[in-house]
Automatic annotation (TrEMBL):
Upper taxonomic lineage: Bacteria, Bacillati, Actinomycetota, Actinomycetes, Mycobacteriales
Protein name: Vegetative protein 296
Gene behind this protein: yurY
Residue span, ABC transporter domain: 4-252
Similarity section: Belongs to the ABC transporter superfamily. Ycf16 family.
Entry-linked SMART domains: AAA (SM00382)
Length: 256
């Protein structure tokens, strides 16, 4: 059983112009995610959802100014990005990066080596990757292509789920995994996430703007995220309410 615990987290984002003051984005986030639980974080654009995922993953542009993040009591904020991955944290980014000149197969093997602490035996590895790619309906030719280079939105997201499948993290953060997916890709990606959940009993933090993906991946808990904070938490019925009424009620509550 693994527990990711976020307490009163405040995060500033460094602006591109390094002379400019950092912007205060996260304003006291509290959240606990345990193995086997799926938490959906839902909020309007610009509310700080990606900032939360980057802060957990340890992106250097996102500075934690106060609060804590722990994984089974261990201080995540003290860990390097690699150490976080080895500890079992995984982030599928909203905008996955392209890595020209590095093939998918090399990239995945390096990532697996970093997370597992030793290089997977080549024969096993080739089989493992092949099976995972088949399940995700990824064409075998992708293993020789450069990471994410020229991939469509759907292909990038499948690749993220391929990493999830191979790296088997304890807690997976999926940032807008549904964005830009057609219905077929959404189904394949969701099935991959659900398989991960079943096989690894992983904890999932599913960040999304739309309720559509929640028809495929059932959350146990739904959190409404507005202006850098969780403003309401509930069960799956909260997502239904958002589907019906949008975020209006929460925005007005904040202003008033
Ligand atoms: P969401 O994922 O909910 O759409 P983000 O976390 O991406 O929200 O952004 C929250 C706010 O922080 C936005 O106002 C955004 O413009 C700002 N922001 C995020 N990252 C940066 C950055 N690297 N530089 C400047 N502003 C940023
Ligand atoms: Mg956004
Ligand atoms: Mg975002």
């Amino acid at each position: 059983m693994t527990t990711l615990e976020i307490r009163d987290l405040h995060v500033d984002v460094a602006q591109t112009d390094s002379d400019a003051e950092p912007i205060h984005i996260l304003k006291g986030v509290n959240l606990t995610v345990k193995s086997g639980e799926t938490h959906a974080i839902m909020g309007p654009n610009g509310s700080g959802k990606s900032t939360l995922s980057y802060a957990i993953a340890g992106h250097p542009k996102y500075q934690v100014t106060s609060g804590s993040i722990t994984l089974d009591g261990e201080d995540v904020l003290e860990m390097s990005v690699d150490e976080r991955a080895r500890a079992g944290l995984f982030l599928a980014m909203q905008y996955p990066v392209e890595v020209p000149g590095v093939s998918m197969s090399n990239f995945l093997r390096s990532a697996a080596t970093a997370v597992r602490g030793e290089a997977p035996k080549l024969r096993h590895w080739v089989k493992e990757v092949k099976e995972a790619m088949t399940e995700l309906e990824i064409d075998p030719s992708f293993s020789e292509r450069s990471v994410n280079e020229g991939f469509s939105g759907g292909e990038k997201k499948r690749h993220e789920i391929l990493q999830l499948d191979l790296l088997k993290p304890k807690i997976a953060i999926l940032d807008e995994t549904d964005s830009g997916l057609d219905v077929d890709a959404l189904r394949v990606v969701s099935e991959g996430v659900n398989r991960y959940k079943e096989r690894e009993n992983g904890g999932i933090l599913l960040i999304t703007h739309y309720t559509r993906i929640l028809r495929y991946i059932k959350p146990d808990h739904v959190h409404v995220f507005v202006n850098g904070q969780v403003v309401q938490s509930g069960g799956p019925e909260l997502a239904d309410e958002l589907e019906e009424n949008g975020y209006e009620r929460f925005l007005t509550a904040k202003a008033g």
